[in-house]
Design goal:
The protein is of the alpha/beta class. It contains eleven helices and eleven strands. α3 crosses α4 and α4 packs parallel to α5.
Amino acid sequence: MSIEIGVNMEFIRCEDKSFEAGVARAAQLGFEWVEPMVHNGRELLSEAGYFHSFSMDNDPLEMKDVLARYKVKAAGLSAHSPLMRPEISVPYLEKAIRLAAAVGAPVVNTDEGIRPEWLTDQECFEVMRYTLKKVLQVAERYNVAVGIEPHQSISKTTTGLLRIATLVESPCLRVNYDTGNAYLGGEDPYEGLKAVLPLLAHVHAKDISIRMAENEKGKLTGTPVGCACGEGVIDWAKVVAILTEGGFSGVLSVECGTSEQAASSLRNLSTHLAAMPRQR
């Protein structure tokens, strides 16, 4: 694999569609990679076909069959779980890793979660180290990466993100870099991307609208979805150049809010990738 373009399944959320309907739409738009979101247990909206998340209590081969039906592959799983709550994150992420292995997804993406007020600075990292040590034993058995995303109070900075992503020495502890979250957190997304390249397993291609950038930069630690790639503040030619020159091999997973934005993002990113010598 070189640099490929995928789409996070959040793009279909506004339409109240099922997981399979979202995969079908992604394939129709021309995507060959998708990033499914997973959850524990049963919940009404997904069961009724009004939400795109996939229950990890379902047979993993059900997801694999859906992906095969529409000739798309899983770039990773969106499996966000609070690392500072091991009673939640350990079983959740272990289950997500087993599902990822079953469907051929190389990475599960997560972040530190909202920090409990009752943890000191030192305790935050001690608890996350425990969680990651336990989870990475399973990740290494299944050869699935755990991608830490810049999305909360610590990982919003590149320094904090790298500290979490190096808490445990493991080839499976990696980074899922989110360009939009990094920008909103007040970071330079291009310098941040360069800094995490040695650990990079997956990229959230998230653009931020000019209006949101003007109103929210430095005030947020992330946002669920962005605008269409190429219609906001992120310089995608620069992002693609950094990834190409750094030898990245993986998926740019578009995070946007509608099918129209997903289609526009695919066109925009494809143009930039086509302009790179290594993509020809």
